């Protein structure tokens, strides 16, 4: 990964020296090495502060939402998950493609503190970026792991068992909205959870309200989820949010055919398109 890190630094330095970007977003060291965190640099000399290693867990694409109307181009590192997140944001008309310079990284996968590959990386179907301006790193391919194996285990439970499982999980939720805040697909100007009108979303942190939030959010991003795993990683209570997301993705594939969100920045969303041939047994 040292070679990738060196190339990222060189590209960032050159972009900033030439004034082609106003700032660059990558990863940098923290006070607790080897852990890395998102890093913003504004000067060419600070390119040396950028790092790339197996601890660069943070997803970067959602930071574009904080500078939607940028007055200059932004430099951004993108792996497979980050790149699909960028496509999601562009497709939702939240950011213009011409306002970002993408440094694509063929991602070898991130690991936890024990050296084990993160689950989201183990299940990743697109470790190579699907959109970029320049590409670094050796070619990578998916690991071929069945990403719906855990979903089928839940599907095999009885209705009562499923209820008990999810009731226990959403009992833990503290409604901090960290999952929403890091998600590139959660890019509404005004979230339903922030509405103060009666009947939208209660503010009490209790299981019933937590489940309303969780299910509403899951269905909202069902055909727009890029499977980056940022929501589950950000959850301080360990709620298995990607298990729910993958369940909905699996259902969409079974009902509407092979679907992988945001391999490009064009085209309609599956659940936003009506066809006469769509399944309608529920009608």
Summarize the structure.
This protein has 283 residues and is α/β, with parallel strands linked by helices. The chain contains 9 helices and 5 strands, in the order αβββαβαβαααααα. Helices cover 33% and strands 10% of the residues.
Strand order of the largest sheet: 2-1-3-4-5
Question: What's the shape?
Answer: globular
**Strand coverage percent:** 5-15%
Distance between the termini: 53 Å
Radius of gyration: 20 Å
- Determine the mean pLDDT: 91
Number of strands: 5
Count of helical stretches? 9
Binned, the helix content reads 25-40%
Largest sheet: 5 strands, mixed
Class by SSE composition? alpha/beta
The ordered string of helix (H) and strand (E) elements is: HEEEHEHEHHHHHH
List unreliable stretches of 5+ residues.
none
């Amino acid at each position: 990964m040292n070679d990738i890190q060196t190339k990222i630094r060189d590209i960032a330095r050159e972009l900033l020296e030439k004034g082609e970007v106003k700032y660059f977003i990558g990863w940098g060291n923290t006070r607790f090495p080897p852990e890395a965190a998102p890093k913003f640099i504004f000067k060419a000399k600070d390119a040396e502060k950028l790092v790339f290693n197996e601890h660069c867990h943070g997803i970067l694409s959602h930071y574009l939402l904080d500078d939607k109307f940028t007055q200059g181009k932004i430099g951004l590192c993108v792996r497979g998950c980050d790149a699909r997140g960028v496509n999601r944001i562009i497709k939702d008309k939240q950011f213009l493609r011409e306002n970002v310079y993408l440094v694509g990284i063929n991602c070898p996968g991130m690991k936890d503190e024990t050296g084990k590959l993160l689950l989201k990386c183990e299940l990743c179907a697109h470790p190579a970026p699907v959109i970029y301006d320049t590409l670094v790193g050796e070619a990578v391919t998916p690991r071929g792991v069945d990403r719906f194996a855990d979903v089928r285990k839940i599907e095999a439970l009885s209705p009562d068992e499923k209820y008990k499982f999810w009731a226990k999980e959403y009992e833990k939720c503290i409604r901090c909205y960290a999952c929403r805040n890091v998600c590139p697909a959660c890019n509404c100007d005004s979230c339903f959870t922030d509405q103060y009108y009666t009947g939208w979303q209660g503010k009490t942190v209790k299981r019933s309200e937590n489940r309303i939030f969780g299910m509403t959010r899951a269905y909202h991003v069902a055909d727009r989820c890029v499977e980056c795993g940022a929501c589950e990683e950000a959850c301080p209570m360990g709620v298995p949010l990607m298990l729910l997301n993958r369940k909905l993705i699996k259902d969409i594939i079974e009902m509407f055919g092979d679907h992988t969100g945001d391999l490009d920045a064009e085209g309609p969303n599956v659940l936003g398109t009506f066809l006469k041939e769509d399944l309608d047994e529920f009608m």
